[in-house]
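Our platform keeps sequence and structure together, in a single record for each protein. This encoding replaces a full spatial description with a residue-level series of whole-number codes. We quote a single record here, exactly as it is kept in our systems:
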Amino acid sequence: MKKQCDYGAILDSNINLFHLIQEPIYIISGHTHNVLFANQAACTVFAWDTHVGKKCYEILQNKAEVCSSCNRFINMEIGETRSWIWYHPYMRRHFKVNDTIVRYQEQVCCLEVAIDISVQIRQKKRLRKALKKLKHVSYTDDMSKVCNRNALIRDIKQYMNHAHYGQSVGAAFFDLNELKRINDNYGHRAGDLKIITLADELKRVFHRNEIYRIGGDEFVVICRNISESGFRDRITLLQMNIQKNTGLSVAIGSAWSTQCNALGKMIMKADKRMYSHKRSYHKNNR
């Protein structure tokens, strides 16, 4: 059985107490939607010069007709409570409104307490924004603007999940040749520019979220739901672009499979092929 609490009677006998409360409190007629009472805090916060007899939806929502807020307590019983969030468009502030159905002035009314939660809302928004930025920083390589090693570890775990078993996948390793010589002879800034150039060429052929810089001048590409021929064509296109546009020398190793659950072995195979390619380059360019 619900506890019956006649807040109207409390208001009648403790009018000064309600005016001392810092949160806005007002009572709205459930029949006419008129504001029957408002404490001093409500008048101050909402800048009400006069409120008695005014429609709640006019002075609270600046509307010409009954709004959804007014209909909230139609099916509620005396003593029943409900909370909801209200955004005041002109004040640009959020309020948590606690409704309680009361009997006041011989009619069923809604006593509302509006608690300003704008600071909390802004803090939550800033926190979400900061977490989003932190997530981006955690999974993005700052220099090349592609995914980093953390993202690769995360995605490998995801791709090897049972839900992705039936998907084809291609993996490739890329490593710049002669980066140490470039750093030694021209400085690390020159070496960084070569790394950025390779990243840019990768982004011309693959989606940014398919590319991972895993350290130094090493990049990994993972493509899901791609045919073997389609994957090979993209590798070939990349090689042609690199040779034509940059003059970079890049060691490449790749592998493809019909099953994502073989991704771990594929990455190892692609890595070995890349190092084999790199050894051949150094053997031929002594």
Summary: The beta strands are 25-29, 35-38, 81-88, 93-104, 107-116, 147-148, 169-176, 211-215, 218-224, 250-257. The chain is about 45% helix and 25% strand. The domain at 140-284 is CATH 3.30.70.270 (Alpha-Beta Plaits). The radius of gyration is 33 Å.
